């Protein structure tokens, strides 16, 4: 029976959501090798998110064939589509796993967002870097503001430190007025983190 090993409380959920044995069989087929008999939660999740064989197969058509079932639910929740996956594959990022796609999409990390940084000359930027950038609100304009003030950012790792500690080009310039010229960006992050200000130095 399709209902074996399904608890009574799950049966109540099934009935409430209109889950029948045909749907259970369909979900178990979609899950493939991940299938287990004690999968009541997965069946409820698939139904709640309207995950269909067509949805699963649409990803297989662009590449990924073994997306974990919990990630399929997450894909649907945050709006990961086959087109989104393919757009990254087309840029050469074929090793992004399902969980990373969920994180990227939830932060609205797009190929266009990546191109806005690579067009500034940062060719080694990775999708996972961009998740942190989005979370911190880092934009190409933020980077350009440092460059316009004469601070060339050679390592994008510096950017997250600068933004996380609230450093602006004006903050760095304020130290020049008390005699500190050409401050290293790593050093300014440390200075800001411990609360050193130009007033403290004066």
Topology:
Elements: H1 8-17, H2 21-31, H3 40-48, H4 53-60, H5 69-78, H6 82-90, H7 98-106, H8 111-118, H9 127-136, H10 140-148, H11 156-164, H12 169-176, H13 185-193, H14 198-201
Helix pairs in contact: 1-3, 2-3, 5-7, 9-11
Separation, N- and C-terminal Cα atoms: 80 Å
Largest sheet: none
Strand content: under 5%
Number of E-type strands: 0
What Rg is obtained from the alpha carbons, in whole angstroms? 24 Å
Pattern of helices and strands: HHHHHHHHHHHHHH
Number of helices: 14
Q: Catalogue the unreliable spans.
A: none
Q: Given the helix and strand composition, which structural class is it?
A: mainly alpha
Mean pLDDT: 85
Rough outline:
elongated
Portion of residues in helices?
A: 55-70%
Report on this structure.
This protein is mainly α. The chain is built from 14 helices and no strands. It has helices at residues 8-17, 21-31, 40-48, 53-60, 69-78, 82-90, 98-106, 111-118, 127-136, 140-148, 156-164, 169-176, 185-193, 198-201. The mean pLDDT is 85.
Labels describing this entry:
elongated; 202 residues; mainly alpha
Brief sketch in words of this structure:
The chain contains 14 helices and no strands. The chain has 202 residues and is mainly α. The longest helix is centred in the N-terminal third of the chain and has 11 residues, at 21-31.
């Amino acid at each position: 029976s399709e209902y074996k090993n399904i608890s009574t409380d799950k049966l109540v959920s099934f009935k409430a959501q209109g889950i029948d044995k045909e749907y259970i069989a369909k979900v178990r087929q979609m899950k493939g090798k991940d299938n287990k008999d004690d999968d009541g939660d997965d069946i409820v999740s698939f139904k709640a998110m309207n995950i269909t064989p067509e949805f699963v197969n649409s990803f297989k058509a662009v590449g990924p064939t073994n997306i974990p079932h919990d990630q399929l639910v997450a894909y649907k929740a945050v709006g990961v589509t086959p087109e989104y996956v393919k757009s990254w594959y087309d840029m050469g990022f074929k090793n992004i796993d399902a969980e990373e796609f969920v994180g990227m999409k939830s932060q609205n990390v797009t190929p266009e967002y990546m191109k806005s940084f690579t067009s500034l000359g940062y060719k080694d930027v990775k999708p996972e870097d961009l998740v942190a950038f989005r979370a911190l609100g880092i934009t190409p304009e933020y980077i350009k503001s440092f460059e316009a003030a004469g601070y060339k950012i050679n390592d994008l790792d510096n950017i997250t430190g600068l933004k996380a500690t609230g450093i602006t080009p004006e903050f760095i310039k304020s130290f020049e007025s008390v005699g500190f010229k050409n401050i290293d960006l790593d050093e300014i992050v440390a200075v800001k983190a411990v609360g050193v200000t130009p007033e403290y130095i004066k």
